[in-house]
Amino acid sequence: MQNAKDSFYMALRTRLTEINPQRTILVRGTVRPGILVEEAEAPFSQFPSDVFVLRWLGLAVDMDLASTMTGEQCEIVYQTCGTQSFGGLDRGRALSTMDEELMAMIQPFYTPKLNYAATPPAAMLTQVFWDEPVFSPIVTQRDRLSRSATVLVYSYQEQGE
Amino acid sequence: MAATWFSAPAPVSRRVRAFFAPVNRAAQTPVLFDPSEQGWFSLDAPPAPWISLGWVQDFVRKTASKSAALMTGIPAAPLEQVRETLEAQVSLQFLSWTKLTMGLATGSQHMNILAPAIGAAPAADGAQASPAVTPQSGSTSTSILLALTDAAKFTPGAIVAVDADYNGQTGYVGTPVAGAYVRQVLTDVDYVRRVTFNVALVSQVTATGLNLAEPLPGGAPATGAKVQAVTGFVDREGGSFYQEWSGLFVMEGSQGERIFFHYPRLQAMTGAEEAVSPLNQKNQGGHSRVLLKGQFLALPVMDPLDGERVVCYRSFLPAANALV
User: Fold this and answer.
1) Virtual torsion, Cα B8, B10, B13, B16, nearest 10 deg
2) What is the DSSP string of A48-84?
């Protein structure tokens, strides 16, 4: 299951660098694409703005198949205060931009499954796939707008997983 | 060299993609799909002459073939089975309204509403049309060269129909798709352009002609073809003509596997019908999407492999490394 989670994240990260290479974050002294996995970073006191944060939540398993199928619920959280140059008055537009980037990142709705524990990452036999995201309403907290999108990520367990 | 593998469960697919190709009605020749040579084609760029009609929904295929047992002995017991009838149907909903989807989803001929001549008497299929203009040599499927005065009759955003004048012929008419069957001689010189599928949107008008936003389905205008402005489309409940197309439906699985349903001959079997789908299921009285419903009867072809009569081919291309 970890391979599916890693593959989903890396697919979105790779796509984001093509969609908007300017969306970056400085983490532990390194500039990276602006998309993180919450459980793979130091705990946040508050989510960083203007980046996408992936949170893995629910898990469902169907073991009555030729290969066990898992469905993992991923919540993608993002928020923005807009830009300083516009005094934050562009925060609605900034959030819409992130909505559009997320919709673009999600497509196509599949990616090859790779084992990122190996160096270089090892290609596996199946693909990870997912449904359309379900977007939550915008949450306004003072000058901060945030939203989340939930995606169900499916994969098949392979030998050795 | 060795391969590893996995046990693939039943395919998981999101949607069905539809492709259609015109049957040569005069020669009664359908378009064949060869999964061995064409199975991995890009769904966004189907091999000619297949035309993508995008995603469809509520795709249902139904066999109506009937088998019966040959009974022998006392008491009678089945000796073997025989196929008494061969029949299959396909139904779906198109997610867009285009010339082609409308044509497919109507049971009879589908007509272009030609721009009317000034002062023409009203008619249900569109009034007498303003005169057609003749493309010049050198025209292509995306660029129609015209005289300056002829080009000035069109505007960007207009739709044009490109086909020959009607000259009193009977039988199938229309290029590259038979748009109608003329049973008796007609008088409308524009009739072929009324029923032709050779239409496109004008993206730009220049001093030398028209640039088209999409290629004409029939390619470069043929000798004798003329160009006429189209303002819309009309079809009728009734008539004796049945559309016939080759159909190819593709389900792409989550692991890259593909399921093809190839119907060499599909005829529309119902009149024009729509399905209404509310955009917001919680607000049934709000905006609704109007979808074209298509229902088709599959007609048989003879498979040259063994001389059997069949109506549909189902092909399955497994995912890479999947056990079979």
Assistant:
1) 120
2) PTTSEEEEEEEEEEE-SSSS-EEEEEEEEEEEE---G
Structure tokens that stand for A126 in this block: 């199946």
Please calculate the CA angle A6-A8-A10 and round it to the nearest 5 degrees. 65
Q: Is residue B210 helix, strand or coil? A: strand
CA angle B21–B26–B32, rounded 5-degree value: 35
Interface with chain A: mutation pick from B254, B321, B323, B324, highest number of A CBs within 10 Å: B254
Selected for mutation to probe chain A from B6, B13, B324 (highest A CB count within 10 Å) is B6
Q: Which residue has the tokens 């449904």?
A: A131
Residues 6+ apart with CB under 8 A from A72: A1, A4, A5, A56, A58, A59, A60, A152, A153, A154, A155
pLDDT in tens, B60-105: 999 999 999 999 999 999 999 999 999 999 999 999 999 999 999 9
- Which stretches does DSSP call E strand in B73-153? 77-85, 88-94, 110-114, 143-145
Peptide bond into B278 cis (omega under 30): no
User: What does residue A69 show for φ and ψ, rounded to 5 degrees?
Assistant: -105, 135
In chain A the beta strands, taken as DSSP E runs, fall at 24-27, 30-33, 35-37, 52-62, 69-80, 110-115, 122-130, 134-135, 139-141, 144-156
Q: Say whether residue A110 is in contact with chain B using an 8 A CB cutoff.
A: yes
Which helix or strand (DSSP H or E) is residue A106 part of?
helix A91-106
Are B165 and B192 in contact by the 8 Å Cβ rule? The answer is: yes
Report cis status (omega within 30 of 0) of the bond before A108: yes
CB < 8 Å & 24+ apart, contacts of B301-307: B301/B30, B301/B264, B301/B265
Phi and psi at residue A13, in whole multiples of 5°? -65, -45
Write the pLDDT tens digit of every residue in B174-213: 988 899 999 999 999 999 999 999 999 999 999 999 999 9
- Number of A:B CB contacts under 8 A? 37
* Spatial CA neighbour of B310 closest among B266, B264, B277, B269: B264
CB–CB of B47/B82 below 8 Å? no
Task: Name the residue in chain A with its Cα closest to that of B319.
Answer: A126
The answer, for B222 touching chain A at a CB cutoff of 8 Å, is: no
